[in-house]
Amino acid sequence: MEKLAFEKKILGNIEKCYAVLGTTIGGKPFLFYGGEGAGSLRAFSGSDFSHCDMVWEGGGGTMSIVPLADGCILASRGFTSMVDSAGSTVEFIRYTGEGFEHFTLCTLDYLHRFDSLLAPDGTRYIFAATLHSGKTDKEDWSNPGHVFVGEMAPVSELPAPVELQQLPGDFYMNHGFCKAEWAGREAAFTTSREGAFVWLPPEKKGGEWISMKLLDFPVSDIAVSDIDGDGEKELACLLPFHGNEFHIYRLSDGKYQEVYTYPLENDFYHAVISATIHGEKVFVGGARKLTADLFLVRWDAEKKGFTEQQLDAGPGPSNLAMLNLEDCDLLLSANRMIFEAAVYKF
User: Fold this and answer.
1) pLDDT tens digits along 191-224
2) How many CA atoms are closer than 13 Å to the CA of 52, on its beta-carbon side?
3) With 0-12 CB in 10 A as exposed, 13-18 as middle and 19+ as buried, what is 327?
4) Are 208 and 202 in contact (CB under 8 A)?
5) Strand partners, 284
6) CA-to-CA distance for 173 and 135, rounded, in angstroms?
7) Which of 286, 328, 333, 303 is CA-nearest to residue 5?
């Protein structure tokens, strides 16, 4: 299996570069990078991505950036550290043609990850997860995190405020999150000390949210994809919390079993996504310590096994995103440990 060819481009330097999103606005690609702490949120565009719009400067704490509609995205703000994250917000960001404006949709203390989910009846919800519910110091994990949902107004009516309600459950070290299809509809996946969970919005407005536990041991982050094409979703997981293991799990006899471990030594695994490169499904991962590398894992159909490819050593990525264009595929990496906003073009 030949390695995938790519080229790396550094777009700029952002303090503690943490969150990323690739999207198109008016048919043109825009690459968003946001920093934690006092970092900024910037959008790079143009034929070589040399044009930079500053969405906001300072007062960052951006943990998530997610797509919504053409010209509109959502981003979190205010999670400046694991301790100082009360008053975090979800911001509605809109492109004006000359730059970006933003408005607060809701406030949620200790907001760490979120996305929007479209229910079968067309209702759109914000699904948000808090890392904890209060800390005295960095090592204090005595207060659990939770998950919250809130119905969104149509995009044309935004920035109408969103009222969030807490769903049942206490989730300690409630760190991991991704959005993927499950049971034929959009779903949210969360990971915590209690394991990995999938959350399905109600069939109709006012109905009950459904949650299922997929793994019953501590997980830090998760990505979901049918990478081997067998009709069942595989789970790529980082564990334990901010830990040193990258595993892939496959459903067998009704239970998820470990089938792959990334072989290079890393620590503080933090980034994992499912992606498609040249039409091929892959998992992409990254860690922030030791080798601190960026890599991808592929399914080799001929050998019926997984194979890996190291893309970069030492950047220490925090989060990743993929943007598939007609002529290329772009892997966005928030290379936090070297304050680098980078894109890898395949």
Assistant:
1) 999 999 999 999 999 999 999 999 999 999 999 9
2) 15
3) exposed
4) yes
5) 273, 296
6) 12
7) 328
pLDDT tens readout for residues 54-65 = 999 987 899 999
Judge whether 246 and 261 are in contact, CB under 8 Å.
yes
Ranges of H-type helices in the chain: none
Q: Which residues contact 15 (CB under 8 A, 6 or more apart)?
A: 35, 37, 38, 39, 40, 60, 339
Q: Give Cα 94 distance to the centre of its chain.
A: 20
* Separation of alpha carbons 97 and 51, rounded Å: 13
The residue whose two tokens read 């459903």 is 251
- Under 8 Å between Cβ of 340 and 8: no
Query: Six-digit token pair at 141?
Result: 């994990």
Q: In which residue are the tokens 């595993």 written?
A: 247
Who contacts 96 (Cβ-Cβ below 8 Å, separation ≥6)?
none
CA pair distance 270, 275, nearest whole angstrom: 16
Output the DSSP codes for 310-331: EEESS---SEEEEEE-SS-EEE
**Structure tokens, 261:** 């471990």
pTM: 0.96
